[in-house]
Amino acid sequence: MTHPTTLPAWQALTEKADPKALPSMRELFATDPDRFATFSLRLDDLLLDYSKNRIDRETRALLLDLARQAGVEAAREAMFGGEPINLTEHRSVLHVALRNRSDRPVRVGGTDVMPEIRAVLARMKTFSERVRSGAWRGATGKPIRDVVNIGIGGSDLGPAMVADALKSYQRPDLAVHFLSNVDGTHAAEILKLCAPETTLFIVASKTFTTQETLANARTARDWLVSALGEAAVEHHFVALSTNAKAVAAFGIDTANMFEFWDWVGGRYSLWSAIGLSIAVAIGFDRFEEMLGGAYAMDEHFRTAPLEANMPVLLALVGVWNANFLGAEAIAILPYDQYLHRLPAYLQQLDMESNGKSTSRDGHPVTWSTGPVLFGEPGTNGQHAFYQLIHQGSRLVPCDFLASAETHNPLGNHHLLLLSNVLAQAEALMRGKTEDEARAELTKAGLSGAELEAQLPHRLFPGNRPSNTLLYRSLDPRTLGMLLALYEHKVFVQGVIWDINSFDQWGVELGKALAKAILPELSGDTPVTPHDSSTAGLIATIRTLRTG
Ligand code: F6P
């Protein structure tokens, strides 16, 4: 375990990042006509263009040295080899096994996990096909028309994002809903859309102890039982979990449970039984195509040399921007309406994985780790927060995503969309110089004091980094590739930052305090010692609820 700041490449990169010595991106493009070819990489139909970053060949070589010195290759082998790299929970990290399409065994503690993975996939296939064909019937003999996935975090965001991303593969007579929030409004609004006789609930929870999911599952169960009686439950509820005991205790027959394992992290679980709602929504064959896309990216990540490795390069560019150029955020900007939930999904993947400040050997880090991640589909974001990205005081690197072809060829919409994404990346890179702004204002008829007053507001500094991910069409295979790309990017960054990307202790404290506060809100329970703010808020809620 090596703290990254002690590595020779880190020192060299620090020197390289000296703002006085750093060429502008305009200069980099002007002096290297092959820059696009040199700083882009293609895998099947997916292209990563990282040329609009403030790096040259030497910086890239140093970043690759950093990856080697940080032990990325050995860490990659350890993950694929099933070693318990999740140090605090003593677990292997094997979401890659879930989409292993080869005959290669994957061992956890000496046991090949592939047979059980294949067995669950076979059950998912049978079940999803039965629901889709109408062979699976509700308690009164009617086919299923609405499927409600009840889960939160990794048991919600992945399937919800994928179901939307692949909406063009869904059937109009089978709606899929995602119930996550403990706010009763979420359940109420979804249940309004469903009829008990034709609704199937998929309760998705790795631990089957998550407060929000159990509360929503109980509400759904009560709703069903009050309409159709207790005996209906087995026809309308299935569970996805690692915890058979808790599933049985909740009242779901474990014959209706699809299993996964503790070496599947929640935010990496959409490839497991947690993907059942996806298989029901788009069909199992499509689900398998998505696994195939992820497998293609896994194989690329596992075998390609670091200098030709897409997840590694994406990660290294992120490290350069964050640790050497001072970026604290990253914007995920899909110019693809179907990917409107991608930023929310990647927030969990990236921020829950790399939002850590303790090194693997237990010391506080003295370097930046995971960035703040946010985003919106283009072009909507352009009319909201892009102002800050172009002219604000903070550096916000962007990932643009776009498809060459659309599932919805309406007029020239798609070309309008593509022209916008290309223009934004170009504008961020080039900026607008004083001479250019002056010429524009003059052309617009301004002169003298008014021109001079306007001028500083019309300048764009440029040099704002972005990556562009371009693909032919958003199909299941491409989506699988994209998601695996981001998973491995997060992995590589976690290794370089010397943190454990696979635990999430930071979410525990709030959960524990909420349990203590819950009874105090009801009015007749004494309030335990809190700070004056929390105590004051509890008292106010009590008054407002009763007054
Ligand atoms: O919020 C923490 C977390 O443990 C996530 O990591 C996880 O995806 C989510 O809660 C849901 O957990 P579960 O699937 O066990 O209900």
From TrEMBL:
Recorded GO MF terms: carbohydrate derivative binding; glucose-6-phosphate isomerase activity; monosaccharide binding
Alphabetical UniProt keywords: Cytoplasm, Gluconeogenesis, Glycolysis, Isomerase
Superkingdom in the source lineage: Bacteria
InterPro entries: G6P_Isomerase, G6P_Isomerase_C, Phosphoglucose_isomerase_CS, SIS_dom_sf, SIS_PGI_1, SIS_PGI_2
Active-site residues, Swiss-Prot/TrEMBL: 352 (proton donor), 383, 511
Annotated metabolic or biological route of this protein: Carbohydrate biosynthesis; gluconeogenesis; Carbohydrate degradation; glycolysis; D-glyceraldehyde 3-phosphate and glycerone phosphate from D-glucose: step 2/4
One Gene Ontology biological process: glycolytic process
Main location (coarse class): cytoplasm
Family that this chain belongs to: Belongs to the GPI family.
Protein's UniProt name: Glucose-6-phosphate isomerase
